[in-house]
Amino acid sequence: MTDVFGQSHKDTHEQVVFCADEQSGLRAIIAIYNTALGPALGGTRFYPYESEQAALADVLNLSKGMAYKNALAGLDLGGGKAVIIGDPATMKSEALLRAYGRFVQSLNGRYYTACDVGTFSEDMDLVARESRFVTGRTVAHGGAGDSSILTAFGVFQGMRASSSFVWGTASLRGKRVGVEGVGKVGHRLVEHLIDDGAEVVVCDVNAAAVERVRQRHPSVEVVASAAELTAADIDVYAPCALGSALDDTVVAQLRAKIVCGGANNQLAHVGVEKQLADRGILYAPDYVVNSGGVIQVADEIEGFNMERARAKASQIFDTTLKIFAIAAEEGVPPAVAADRLAERRMSEVGRIRAIWLGG
After folding, report:
1. 3-state secondary structure of 176
2. Catalytic residue among 64, 81, 92, 175
3. Burial of 303 by CB count in 10 Å (0-12 exposed, 13-18 middle, 19+ buried)?
4. Given 88, 211, 258, 261, which is the most exposed site by the fewest CB atoms within 10 A?
């Protein structure tokens, strides 16, 4: 039996909580990477992991990524994540979600949860019946609803910043943009690109998703596969589907000058960021440009206001440009520059938060 209570997380994460409720079938892990900037915020992923060890590895990686994402989004929030082990299509129930909510509540505000793969705003409403520390709720319950709205908007701001850095103009007009994955985020990104005058090429394994885009935008070109898209004559590649989209093969054949998309964990392994830089391809770090969604759900903590959240997400443009400037000045890839900037904010603000307030 694999020991998920091993040492793999103890030197990096503040807290890892294993949650189980036999009657509802709940098996979950909540990981808090750090709370240097404030309470940890990150979604709950409901997924049929092949093992508890695989679930643990995923939640540790995702919670660390959320710390960096929240830091560069300018939020006073740390990094956390949760995973529920199982198939949501067969296991999800009111009892399970409410049992999970009890575990979230037991952390007394150290962790705020929200939606992720396999969970939706309606699920968060159920979790919230047992916990005060839930965001990403339905509009009917005072929440932000679909967070893909500002995720796509933020990716578009990152793409505008990338265009400004490479071509001297923030407009994508006349540029050929390849969007891989036209689901919740991708199809909204297509809307922004069409409105800006870009030429758009798309692909998706889901034929219905492609057809929805074609019906709304007949000018959009469709290719059969991701391999065909990345090898095409495009100016910008926007991975908006699964992670690890950028591997050795893709980077070697990519003709785009910019990579900027909504998918998480786009770099297949360490070193890909250098391969992109060596080929003269500008990579907009994924956790920077796709942070609009977490900005949207984080705004609920104050009482959701879309205008305020959208204004915050628009700052992704300036943050992306700042990262490119640091990368150029320090002679490192943008992914490295982004990590350094996030770590600097966590360190500097985290130090200030250590000042004793008395009482």
Report:
1. strand
2. 81
3. exposed
4. 211
Mean pLDDT of 333-343: 96
Angle made by CA atoms 260, 264, 266, in degrees to the nearest 5: 60
User: For residue 242, is pLDDT > 90?
Assistant: no
Q: Beta strands of 7-69 (E only): which ranges?
A: 15-21, 26-34, 40-41, 44-47
E strand residue ranges, 61-123 = 78-85, 111-112
Query: Is 64 considered catalytic here?
Result: no
pLDDT digits (tens, 9 = 90+) for 172-211: 999 999 999 999 899 999 999 999 999 999 999 999 999 9
pLDDT the model gives residue 243:
82
Q: How far apart are CA 10 and CA 17, in angstroms?
A: 12
Site of tokens 């893709």: 250
Residue 110 near residue 35, CB atoms below 8 Å: yes
Q: How far apart are CA 29 and CA 16, in angstroms?
A: 7
Please spell the DSSP secondary structure of 214-276, one letter per residue: HHH-TT-EE-S-HHHHHTSS-SEEEE-SSS--B-HHHHHH---SEE--S-SS-BSSTTHHHHH
DSSP state of 48: -
